[in-house]
Amino acid sequence: xxxxxxxxxxxxxxxxxxxxxxxxxxxxxxxxxxxxxxxxxxxxxxxxxxxxxxxxxxxxxxxxxxxxxxxxxxxxxxxxxxxxxxxxxxxxxxxxxxxxxx
Length: 102
Prior knowledge:
about 100 residues, mainly alpha
């Protein structure tokens, strides 16, 4: 799992703010939109990686070996996917009933 932590850490993205400031000045502020999109995208990517890193560290500090940690993380992901599917199903049923009963 140490290799996995290393790989996840090296995949983090950084925004080159100096470049974006220069581009914003040169384009009269038009580049500000591209800068904002880049920052949000990089932030979302890094938060996803941080979540994975925190999961690994959490299970490793509980004393799980690499195999058990991997299995637990996979199980957590499956449970999350099932929960999301149920939420979407409930929302669709509520929307259907709303329009059907009108």
